[in-house]
Structures are given as structure tokens and as C-alpha cells.
Structure to design on (654 residues):
């Protein structure tokens, strides 16, 4: 049996807004095994951002258990959570969140600075390897302002990969990109998935969800649908099918 | 994150805002430079007062007759004749903390050489007198023990007297001058000492054996005062006590009697004058210290701005595994680097400013090592103190909100 990466059991999250209690998540259950490519979908207000924050160990559930790669995250301290984020999760954000005026290489090295086990030499090697994996080997010294949106997102993906996390957590990672570049990023994601990376991709575009192997639909803080994709589209083929003339 | 990486990170962050970093530093630079320059001025003036007084003989103790009562009327000190050569002998024998004792006799009068004359002071003691007053010979010889014993009609001239009596530049040694009506042979001239810190011309003097002045000029057996030298400046106070007890005994004073003499030390004078310049130093340093605090507030201000500006960066760092302490240290190290770099530049600037002040204004300055170390430590501490709150604010940000901050 394949290893379970995420075990979500009856997770609830409540926020207190003044005197009112807002129930963002009303009991979520699902399990993700290693090597899956899951998209979490839902309209705004469905609780997907709250779920993402919990999955990313940035927030803790009000009740329920969340086991990430065998670690119960629920009872960890702030500092322990930082360590979990550092070692087990690779974040990819909608707005890339790269450090300005800092080279691609240094941006990718960043997570390794917070990992005491890795020395200067190893840090550099790993960062170069990660940038090679996203096909940016020749742009190590470029700063974000010298890179296109797609390239910046690829640097961000390299940064997510560099610490060899058990899961890549993408938050609307194609939200700021045009269709062609979105497909390029999805092609890269699929490639990483084929290499065995577990990917959890939060999006609201059904188009993007069709590239994943499984989709979880959220609605009003509950799982509305959870289904495996029979016909996973290949992002590479979709990219090839795009009319060239559209791309100015 | 290792300290090396923290420093590198901070330098990178500062490099991105070079001008801002420099302007922030400027407060510290000016503060430290001001502290060092002000302390240097204060210390310099203190040192110069001390060396001037030391030139007059910092161990010197003056014993003067005190006011006395004659027929119910209190008499002025100088008109009282209580000090005698016997007192000098007693002090020489019994006051062990004194390295030299000399009786002093003096008289004002007119010095005459040929057609020229000059009003001046004739003063003298025994052979120790030169030592105590720190007088040195320029030309000729000093008077000897036998000159003192025989009340020889010899004298030495100070530079001002030489200039006024022998303006054409001829050597006065060997010449005979008259003081009032007494002919005195010039056997030497004294090295110039310049004007004292009280504005008195120390070269306007003729020195002769005290016996000569007593017997041939004043015709008295009393002494104007007694000069003595303590073995060291520190021993001055103890020496005063010794002198007092010896003189009370030789003067046969009862326990209830007031002293009919008074003892003054140079050390007291130095203390008084130094305390003035110490006060000056404290004042100047306090003002300079305030500018250092303002510099610190500048750092705090900029660090707050920097934290707000880099909220997203902080959120990102947290999301990829930075702990609160990592963020705290990152900003703290940045603040400390600003303050320490500013401090170093300030030290260099302060030393340079002191030199420039000495060169252009001619004020004596003394850059003390303690002021450098102290102001440097204070500014490093300033960095920690004023950098801590912004850094703490950064470290306590909620990563979720920080990531979404616009």
C-alpha cells in the first residue's frame, strides 16, 4: 500500500468575529497518498483558503486531526510548525513572493538557510539542481525583475522543491499568468508529479483541475465532491494545441 | 540561521537601500563623533591645566603666616611675623613627607642697571628654592650654600627683567645691578616659564639668597612664607597634616588656640580648577549623549518602516520555515550593523574632528581610549535597544496575514 501523506480527519475551523462565530470549515475528511496530484476547488467563501492555511501548517484547526507524513501537526508549537513547513512543505504562491533585487539562485537557496543540517556548499548545489529541474539553469543570476511571470513562478517552484518536501502546496499558482504560461507551469507540475512528487493545488479554474489526477470540491466548508480524474489531460499536449497566433 | 548568514543577509538588505541606511547611520555617526570630540576637548583642557600647574610645581606647599590677634584687633596675615628659620629647621628635621623645605623672603622694589630701571619682585630662599619652584638655569650658575650662609650680594634674573634692563642683548651675567640701593652681582639668568594660569608673569623676578633679602634689603629676621615640596602629589594632604602638627608644636600653641599660620597646597588648586573642567566635560558629554539617543530613535524609526515594508518578505520567510527567532535576529542584526558601522565611522570622525579643532582653534584636545570604547559600546547597545522592538514586532507577525499584506 502506498504511503499516506495527508490524513485529514473531521477538521473544523471557526473564527470569532466580534460576537459572531464564523464556521469556515465544518468537518473535512480526506486522505492523500504519495504521488497524487490533487486540486482543491471551490468558489470564494467555500473555505479553500482556510483549508490551505491549515494544510500549509500556517494555521491550526479548531478541532479534528491533521497528520502530515506521519506527524500530528495539531499539537505542535509555533517553532515546531516552522520546522515542519521548512522540511515537509514546498509553497508556491499566486504572486510568486520572490525577494526583490535578489538573484534566482539566492531566492531558491532561501529555505535551506533555515535548515541547519545543510552547509554552504550543499545549499548552492541543491539550489542549482532545483533550478535545473525547472529549466532555469542559465538564469541563476537574474533578479525577479529580469524574469517573466512564468519564469518567476518557475523560480518559486524551484524554491518549493529545493528542500525535498513531501508535498508541494500551490495556492492559485497560475492565477497571475496567461493561458499559455499557465499550461507551461502545469506541464512542469505534471512532470514533477510523474517523478513522484505529491502535489496539492488550490485553484478555482476547472480548466486547471483537469490536469490533476484527483479533484476535491469544497462548498460552504464541506467536501462537496471528491473524485478521481479518469482522463487526465496532458498539459504538454494542451500547450501544443494552443493556436500560435494568439501568442503575440 | 548561522550568524555569518545573518550578517550577510543584513548587509544585502542594507545594500538595497544604501542611502537610507547611510542617513539612518548619520544620527549615530554624529552622536559618536560629538561624544568623542567633546570629551577630547574637556579632557584636553583638564590636562593642560594640570600640566601648567605641574609646571609651577604640583607638589608645592606654601606655608603663610595667618591672621593674628594683637590687642583685640585681628591683623592681616602678611603683616604678621610668625614664621622663622627655626620653623624651617624643625620641618626639615621632622616632616618626613617633605622632600624639600625653603624659607622665602621677598620684597618689591626697583631694579636699576645703568640708565634703565624696572619695578620687579626680589624673592629668594635657600638652595632648595629652585627645586621647589621648578626654576631652571639658562646661563651662569645658581647661588650656593655658602652664598646663603654669608648673605652674599648675588642674584639671578628672570627673562622679563633681563629684557628690560639689558634690552640690547648683552649678557647680564657678571654685571652688577642695584635693587633699590643694594648692589647685587648677576651670577645667572633663569629659563623662561611664561605666564602662569592666573595671568602672572613668572619671569618678572629676581632671585637671591633669602638671607641677602632678609638682612640687606628688609632688615628683619622673619620670613614672608615657607615653601616646601611633598614627596609626591598624592602625599600632599598627609604632608599638610604633618606640617601643621610640627608648626603648632614649635609655635607652642595650646589645643584651644587657632593656627597662626596657614598651609596651602597646589593639589587643592588643581582640584578646584579640574573640577570646573570636569563639569564642562560632563555637560558636553551629556549634550553629545542626547544626540546619540536621537540617532538611536532614528534607527528605531527606520526599522519600523523596514518591517512594514517587508511584511510580505517576512510572511514568505515564515512560510518556508523561518521561526520567530530567525526573523527577530534578522532585523536585530540589521539594526546592530547600522549602529556599529555608524559607531566606527563616528569614532574616526570624532578623532579627526579633535585633531582639526587642535590645529585650527589651537584648543588642547585629548582623545581618551575610554571615551572611544564607551561611546562605541553605547552605540552597539543603542542598536540592540532600539532595534529590538521593531524586530520583535516582525517576529510576532501572523504568517497568513503577512503573506497577503499589500
Amino acid at each position: 500500500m502506498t504511503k499516506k501523506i495527508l490524513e485529514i480527519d473531521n477538521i473544523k475551523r471557526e473564527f470569532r468575529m466580534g460576537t459572531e462565530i464564523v464556521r469556515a470549515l465544518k468537518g473535512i475528511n480526506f486522505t492523500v497518498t504519495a504521488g497524487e496530484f490533487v486540486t482543491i476547488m471551490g468558489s470564494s467563501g467555500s473555505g479553500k483558503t482556510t483549508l490551505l492555511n491549515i494544510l500549509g501548517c500556517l494555521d491550526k484547526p479548531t478541532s479534528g486531526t491533521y497528520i502530515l507524513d506521519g506527524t500530528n501537526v495539531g499539537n505542535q508549537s509555533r517553532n515546531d510548525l516552522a520546522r515542519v513547513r521548512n522540511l515537509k512543505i514546498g509553497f508556491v504562491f499566486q504572486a510568486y513572493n520572490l525577494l526583490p533585487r535578489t538573484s534566482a539562485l539566492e531566492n531558491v537557496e532561501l529555505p535551506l538557510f533555515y535548515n541547519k543540517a545543510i552547509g554552504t556548499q550543499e545549499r548552492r548545489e541543491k539550489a542549482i539542481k532545483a533550478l535545473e529541474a525547472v529549466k532555469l539553469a542559465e538564469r541563476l543570476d537574474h533578479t525577479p525583475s529580469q524574469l517573466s511571470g512564468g519564469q518567476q513562478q518557475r523560480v518559486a517552484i524551484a524554491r518549493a522543491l529545493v528542500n525535498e518536501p513531501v508535498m508541494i502546496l500551490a495556492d492559485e499558482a497560475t492565477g497571475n499568468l496567461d493561458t499559455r504560461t499557465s499550461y507551461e507551469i502545469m506541464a512542469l507540475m505534471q512532470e514533477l508529479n510523474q517523478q513522484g512528487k505529491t502535489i496539492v493545488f488550490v485553484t478555482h479554474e476547472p480548466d486547471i483541475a483537469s490536469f490533476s489526477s484527483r479533484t476535491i470540491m469544497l462548498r460552504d466548508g464541506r467536501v462537496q465532491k471528491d473524485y478521481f480524474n479518469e482522463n487526465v489531460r496532458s498539459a504538454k499536449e494542451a500547450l501544443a494545441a494552443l493556436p500560435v497566433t494568439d501568442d503575440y | 540561521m548561522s550568524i555569518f548568514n545573518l550578517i550577510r543577509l543584513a548587509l544585502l538588505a542594507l545594500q538595497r537601500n544604501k542611502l537610507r541606511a547611510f542617513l539612518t547611520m548619520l544620527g549615530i555617526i554624529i552622536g559618536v563623533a560629538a561624544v568623542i570630540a567633546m570629551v577630547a576637548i574637556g579632557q584636553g583642557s583638564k590636562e593642560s591645566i594640570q600640566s601648567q600647574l605641574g609646571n609651577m610645581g604640583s607638589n608645592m606647599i606654601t606655608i603663610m603666616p595667618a591672621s593674628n590677634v594683637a590687642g583685640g584687633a585681628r591683623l592681616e596675615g602678611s603683616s604678621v611675623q610668625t614664621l622663622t628659620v627655626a620653623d624651617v629647621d624643625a620641618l626639615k628635621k621632622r616632616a618626613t613627607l617633605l622632600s624639600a623645605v625653603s624659607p622665602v623672603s621677598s620684597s618689591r622694589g626697583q631694579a636699576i642697571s645703568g640708565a634703565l630701571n624696572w619695578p620687579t619682585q626680589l624673592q629668594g630662599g635657600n638652595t632648595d628654592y629652585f627645586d621647589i619652584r621648578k626654576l631652571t638655569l639658562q646661563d651662569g650658575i645658581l647661588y650656593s650654600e655658602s652664598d646663603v650662609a654669608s648673605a652674599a650680594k648675588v642674584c639671578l634674573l628672570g627673562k622679563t627683567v633681563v629684557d628690560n634692563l639689558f634690552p640690547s642683548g648683552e649678557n647680564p651675567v657678571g654685571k652688577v645691578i642695584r635693587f633699590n640701593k643694594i648692589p647685587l652681582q648677576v651670577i645667572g639668568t633663569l629659563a623662561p616659564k611664561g605666564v602662569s594660569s592666573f595671568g602672572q608673569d613668572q619671569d618678572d623676578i629676581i632671585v637671591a639668597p633669602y638671607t641677602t633679602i632678609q638682612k640687606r634689603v628688609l632688615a628683619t629676621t622673619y620670613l614672608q612664607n615657607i615653601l616646601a615640596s611633598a614627596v609626591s602629589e598624592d602625599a600632599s594632604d598627609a604632608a599638610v597634616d604633618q606640617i601643621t602638627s610640627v608648626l603648632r608644636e614649635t609655635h607652642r600653641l595650646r589645643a584651644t588656640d587657632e593656627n597662626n599660620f596657614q598651609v596651602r597646597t597646589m593639589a587643592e588648586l588643581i582640584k578646584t580648577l579640574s573640577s570646573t573642567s570636569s563639569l564642562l566635560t560632563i555637560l558636553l558629554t551629556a549634550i553629545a549623549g542626547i544626540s546619540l539617543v536621537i540617532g538611536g530613535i532614528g534607527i528605531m524609526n527606520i526599522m519600523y518602516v523596514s518591517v512594514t515594508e517587508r511584511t510580505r518578505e517576512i510572511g514568505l520567510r515564515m512560510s518556508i520555515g523561518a521561526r520567530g527567532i530567525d526573523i527577530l535576529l534578522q532585523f536585530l542584526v540589521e539594526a546592530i550593523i547600522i549602529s556599529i558601522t555608524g559607531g566606527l565611522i563616528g569614532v574616526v570622525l570624532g578623532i579627526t574632528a579633535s585633531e582639526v579643532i587642535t590645529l585650527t582653534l589651537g584648543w588642547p584636545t585629548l582623545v581618551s581610549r575610554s571615551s572611544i570604547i564607551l561611546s562605541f559600546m553605547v552605540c552597539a547597545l543603542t542598536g540592540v535597544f532600539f532595534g529590538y522592538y521593531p524586530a520583535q514586532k516582525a517576529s510576532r507577525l501572523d504568517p497568513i496575514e503577512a503573506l497577503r499584506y499589500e
Summary: Residues 118 and 164 of chain B are 7 Å apart (CA to CA).
